Amino acid sequence: MHCLNLKAVANLHSLSLPGRASSGVKDCSFRVNRIVACSVPGSGSGTGPVQGSSQSPFFSRTETYALLKQQLEVAAKAEDYKEAARLRDSLRVFEEEEPVLRLQRLLKEAIAQERFEDAARYRDELKEIAPHCLLKCSSDATTLGIRVQVRSVYIEGRSQPSKGLYFFAYRIRITNNSDRPVQLLRRHWIITDANGKTESVQGVGVIGEQPVILPKTGFEYSSACPLSTSSGRMEGDFEMKHIDKVGTRTFNVAIAPFALSTFGDGADTT
């Protein structure tokens, strides 16, 4: 289990990070780097798709769930409420067959209806069977004016669930909202799988670079991480320094925890 940091040109639009008008990000300029190839243990050279991967029943159900959610969103936007209701019911049936999705939906409904005792019970059940599922597949944290946004996504085409291989990509956007230039020196990740196994990964820079990020600019890149379980979490920090003065001390910029999940952010249909 390890992170892969490689330069890139792959299309990862599904990893788009949410923008906020009040964030001050939209006036910043960004350098964007993306994944070109990823090496997975036991997959050969890693320069192309994983060979011989078979679509297990779990793999197909993940695809089906994502498709139903997408179709529901399209129907709702088109104001086709009859079709939206049908798709909503289909999603409910699907979620009833998946314990984590069912509990996530029940938790959300209990909170909305202010049934907090029930909500606490559902939350505890979720923690028991899937300790990372209460995290979102995105995070957002700011340290000393340096904002780090992350979003992860499950890559079905490179995963082999039958062999215990689940492949996740993530995109990171670093925005310098301070008035001083900084340089990213090192990265540190803590990766935890669904069994509680934790790995600490450290390295110089990101994707082979130690980027300098000027005030009101940003740096964005994508990378990937294989897991042996269908869910997990990542968190960590970047070691940076201000470069406008000689002899300044380094400081750590937090990367807030985010989930790695085959079902994304789970049940969000009401």
Report on this model:
With 270 residues, the protein is an alpha+beta fold. Residues 5-14, 19-27 and 34-59 have low confidence and may be disordered. Helix content is 24%, strand content 32%. It folds into two domains: 27-40 and 135-261, Immunoglobulin-like (Sandwich); 57-129, no CATH class. The strands form two sheets. Strands 1-8-4-3-2 form a five-stranded mixed beta sheet, with no helix packed on it. Strands 5, 6, 7, 9 and 10 form a five-stranded antiparallel beta sheet that branches. The longest helix has 21 residues, at 57-77.
Give a short summary of the structure.
The chain is of the alpha+beta class. It is built from four helices and ten strands.
The helical percent reads: 10-25%
> Which CATH class of the largest domain is shown?
Mainly Beta
Overall form? elongated
Number of individual domains: 2
Tell me the name of the CATH homologous superfamily of the largest domain. Answer: ApaG domain
List the total number of helices: 4
How far is it from the N-terminal to the C-terminal residue, by CA? 36 Å
**Rg measurement, Å:** 20 Å
| CATH fold-type name of the largest domain | Immunoglobulin-like
The side-by-side strand order for the widest beta sheet comes to 1-8-4-3-2
Strand content: 25-35%
Let me know the number of strands. 10
CATH architecture call of the largest domain: Sandwich
Output the structural class: alpha+beta
Biggest sheet features: 5 strands, mixed
If you average the pLDDT, what whole number results? Answer: 76
Q: Which runs of at least 5 residues are low in confidence (pLDDT < 50)?
A: 5-14, 19-27, 34-59
Pfam family, one: DUF525
Protein name: Protein ApaG
Domain ApaG: 140-267
InterPro entries: ApaG-like, ApaG_domain, ApaG_sf, UVR_dom
